[in-house]
Inverse folding.
């Protein structure tokens, strides 16, 4: 069944009103008809099974058939601080990070970041990244849409995550997987977890040292050198597996 997101104020006691670009998608792309069913999420973990009652030009009215609390979100909040890579790699990273359960993606400018976004273009880039996050959330059946924040400096990113309970920074000078295992296994439900990933070329030593001073733990991701678009996804995959395997 198709899955759409609405804001809380579009959900009434008995009906949901879908507005915006999804109206055209429902009417003219999917060619749905009254009587067909769909899922609607309010972005706050509530999922509604609905039946389309009216297809207007500006809105779709759907009757609520049932309401459930979304059970697909990870029990901990994984925040991906991603050093901005070259080209369109960040778009792929955002898409896959959302599929893997990240609750937030923070683009970060580091000393080795090659791409330098002009301020007037940054807003358009962030808007596009959030569209990609929404599309990935729909595809993967998420109950909420992870946000892609504004671009932050590395110092701002460290300050943003200062109160997170678990903070790690994969770094090529870190040795052994013991600390990696300890950090990931220490993640408990309700925690905020910061995952700091460098761009191509990784972090400079001074950045890793600054992170350590802020309580971020350097960890190894193994003997192989991973690309920036691989490293964060590896951490998200393992963390998600450890969190969800506790329920089995």
């Amino acid at each position: 069944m198709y899955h759409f997101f609405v804001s809380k104020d579009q959900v009434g006691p008995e009906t949901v009103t879908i507005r915006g670009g999804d109206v055209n998608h429902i009417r003219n792309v999917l060619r749905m008809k009254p009587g067909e069913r769909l899922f609607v999420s309010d972005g706050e973990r509530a999922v509604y099974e609905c039946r389309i009652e009216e297809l207007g030009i500006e809105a779709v009215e759907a009757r609520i058939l049932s309401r459930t609390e979304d059970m697909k979100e990870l029990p901990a909040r994984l925040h991906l601080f991603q050093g901005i890579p070259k080209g369109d790699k960040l778009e792929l990273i955002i898409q896959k990070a959302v599929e893997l359960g990240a609750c937030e993606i923070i683009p970060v400018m580091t000393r080795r970041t090659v791409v330098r976004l002009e301020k007037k273009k940054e807003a358009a880039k962030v808007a596009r990244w959030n569209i990609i996050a929404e599309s990935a959330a729909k595809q993967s059946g998420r109950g909420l849409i992870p946000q892609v924040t504004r671009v932050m400096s590395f110092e701002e990113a460290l300050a943003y995550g200062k109160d997170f309970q678990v903070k790690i920074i994969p770094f090529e000078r870190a040795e052994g997987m013991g600390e990696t295992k300890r950090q990931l296994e220490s993640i408990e439900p309700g925690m905020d977890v910061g995952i700091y990933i460098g761009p191509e070329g990784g972090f400079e030593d001074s950045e890793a040292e600054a992170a350590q001073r802020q309580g971020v733990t350097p960890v190894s991701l193994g003997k192989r050198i991973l690309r920036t678009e691989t490293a964060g996804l590896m951490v998200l995959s393992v963390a998600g597996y450890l969190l969800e395997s506790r329920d089995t």
